[in-house]
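Renewal narrative, Specific Aim 1. Our central claim is that a sequence can be written position by position from structural information alone. The example that follows is taken directly from our test logs and has not been curated for this report. It begins with the C-alpha cells describing the chain, in the order in which they were read.
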C-alpha cells in the first residue's frame, strides 16, 4: 500500500498516524497491497474552493473523496484489483470544530474523516438509510479497532 500524506493546512498533525490508519483500513477491506492513496490536509479556503468546484456547494466541508480506478473491497479469499484508489482531502479547521461539538479530540475527528473518505473511495455511500447504517457501522468498527491496537 502506497500512501502519500501531505499537510498543506499548517495544522500540526502526525502524518505517520494517518498513513498507518490508511494501511490498516486498506488491509481490513482486502484491497490489493499495491493500491495507491493520497491524503491531503488543506486550509479552509482551499477546501471551500474544492467544495464549490466539485460539489457545487458553498463554504468548506470536512472531507472530500476523489476516486480514481473505482476499486472495490476484496474478500477474505480474494484481494481487490491493483490500482489507484484515489485522493482524500481533509480540512483540519472544520474537523476541529466538529470535534469540539462531538466532544472528542481533533485528531480522532480527522482519523474518523480519513476512514470515512477511504470508504467513499471504495464505493460506500450514505445517501439512503440502509447505506448510511452499513457505512457508519463499518467506519466505527474500523476506527475503534485501529485505535485499540495503537
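The sequence written for that structure reads:
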Amino acid at each position: 500500500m502506497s500512501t502519500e500524506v501531505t499537510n498543506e493546512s499548517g495544522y500540526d498533525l502526525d502524518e505517520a498516524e494517518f498513513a498507518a490508519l490508511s494501511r490498516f483500513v486498506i488491509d481490513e477491506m482486502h484491497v490489493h497491497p499495491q493500491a495507491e492513496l493520497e491524503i491531503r490536509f488543506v486550509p479552509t479556503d482551499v477546501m471551500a474552493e474544492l467544495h464549490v468546484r466539485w460539489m457545487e456547494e458553498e463554504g468548506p466541508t470536512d472531507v472530500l473523496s476523489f476516486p480514481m480506478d473505482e476499486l472495490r473491497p476484496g474478500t477474505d479469499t480474494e484481494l481487490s484489483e491493483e490500482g489507484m484508489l484515489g485522493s482524500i482531502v481533509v480540512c483540519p479547521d472544520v474537523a476541529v470544530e466538529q470535534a469540539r461539538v462531538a466532544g472528542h479530540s481533533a485528531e480522532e475527528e480527522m482519523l474518523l474523516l480519513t476512514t470515512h473518505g477511504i470508504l467513499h473511495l471504495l464505493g460506500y455511500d450514505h445517501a439512503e438509510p440502509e447505506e448510511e447504517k452499513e457505512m457508519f457501522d463499518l467506519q466505527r468498527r474500523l476506527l475503534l479497532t485501529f485505535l485499540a491496537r495503537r
